[in-house]
Structure of Transglutaminase-like domain-containing protein:
Amino acid sequence: MVRDARGITRFLSVCFITFLAVLAVSIGAGAVYSIYTLTDYSSKSTVPVVIPTTAEPEYEETETPSSISAVEVDTVYSSEYYTRTYNWTYSGYEQSITVSIPTEYYDYYRNKSHSGKDFDHYALSEDDRVFLNKMIDAFEEQGEIHNFTADQNVLNVIAFVQAMPYTSDSVTTGYDEYPRYPIETLVDGGGDCEDSAILAAALLLEMSYGVVLIELPGHMALGVMGDENISGTYYEYNGSRYYYVETTSTGFALGELPPEYEGATAKIYNMSPMPSMNIEILAEYVDSDWNYVYYRVRCDVTNTGPTTAQNVTVVVLAEAEPFDLTRVWSQSGEINIGTLADDESGWVEYTVSIPKRNQTRFTCVVYGDNFNQDYAYTRVAFIN
């Protein structure tokens, strides 16, 4: 009943990173978002302090992401790996990172669904956590070499993402809109605004920093949680301030908003690893007798991610008026599908009975341990 998900665990053990530096970023529950206007906070201190760090910085001058355009020092293709090298500058140090990713690992993400998902799902995919953690280890090792503070490690990641080349979806993929998973952006050698924002969000999440995705008209950016000591533009969301980060161009500081987006409203995508269910329902006539009409109802359930859905359970209903899930002509018991991984699907079928000469609508209710209850229903039907 449940289609098997494709596994990639076996590829994680062969991932490696070399990091060099020399002196010199109504179906399915959907994303959680809200609409907010920008707030300028330019009158405050210029010293960037990123929550949860609250201590005084160990450096005297303001540290902002300082980077040069990425230089692809070496690109190696083989039947087993994609290897790419990027260069950037942060805090006076020229740095280089070489990433080697198994081709089958990249193909796994390339073959995943890239439609019907909200942008936060790409940043929260659980299949690439081990690889991203290896990258963070490399960043933090370099931070120790150069005595970077925790805040500087964050700004160094931002500078790295800013240094990646900007490439449009239509040129690189043939699609007008093609959000990339972080692994795809690394192998593809860059991406557009949502790709760089997704990559930066995924990396900073692995560093345990609060982040959101900020969708502006025709543009996507990153928001990093910060306190009142930071100068710049921020969004107030769920009681915290998220400072704007431009990920598609070098030289933008934390809180620096491009002039063309001043006064614009934004969707704020919360980085909550809660699965979202896509539900499709089909009701077909089966039979009838003197008193009842019988319909077979099929519910197809797909976990659109970003994480595995636990204990997925379905109830099939033939509702009676008023249609509010509280009155039913007929219903199934709790039908358990089980666990559904990201992009995995399952289905149930149940035959319901409706008294003749009544109205009904057929409904599939889906719930589980780690996601919100959701449902899909047909149009109201009169049963002759």
User: Anything to note?
Assistant: The chain has a mean pLDDT of 79. The radius of gyration is 25 Å. The chain has eight helices and 20 strands. The helical segments are 9-12, 103-110, 119-124, 129-145, 150-162, 169-172, 182-188, 193-206.
